[in-house]
Q: What sequence folds into this?
């Protein structure tokens, strides 16, 4: 619990002044919602901490070294793993990026990514975004089903329900 509270405090400061494009709400509401979605399938503090920190490398001035120093290399590695490579996305597009990277993620990173996608889809509700997500999930369904992880299967099922797949 201590580590998770530390992650909440850190992410809140790191995202200070940022807002969600889709809702106009303070950005910290997104990582907290991702953690809430994950808490519905597991209470592992490490995974919840990664969920709370999942956008700090991508969207703030936070470095991986800073995360390692404050939270240890395991959390820092998972946060780095779940962070989008914006340069690669600019080259190949978001859909191709997800098709390439999601199957390679660890179970922790995949669970966080599925919860992240779930919250993004719920916030955006743009048909274009939902359709792209549907295509990616359908293409990756067999890979996700192979995972021996009940939390991943539950999160994937919830996301499929939201997207009406």
A:
């Amino acid at each position: 619990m201590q580590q998770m509270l530390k992650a909440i405090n850190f992410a809140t400061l790191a995202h200070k002044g940022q807002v969600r494009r889709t809702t106009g709400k303070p950005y910290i509401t997104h990582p907290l919602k991702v953690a809430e979605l994950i808490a519905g399938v597991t209470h592992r503090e490490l995974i919840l901490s990664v969920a709370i920190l999942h956008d700090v490398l991508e969207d703030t001035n936070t470095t991986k070294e800073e995360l390692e120093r404050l939270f240890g290399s395991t959390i820092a590695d998972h946060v780095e793993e779940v962070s989008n490579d914006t340069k690669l996305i600019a080259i190949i597009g978001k859909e191709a990026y997800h098709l390439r990277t999601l199957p390679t993620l660890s179970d922790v990173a995949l669970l966080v990514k599925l919860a992240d996608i779930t919250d993004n889809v719920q916030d955006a509700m743009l048909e274009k975004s939902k359709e792209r997500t549907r295509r990616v999930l359908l293409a990756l369904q067999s890979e996700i089903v192979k995972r021996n992880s009940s939390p991943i299967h539950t999160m994937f099922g919830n996301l499929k329900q939201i997207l009406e797949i």
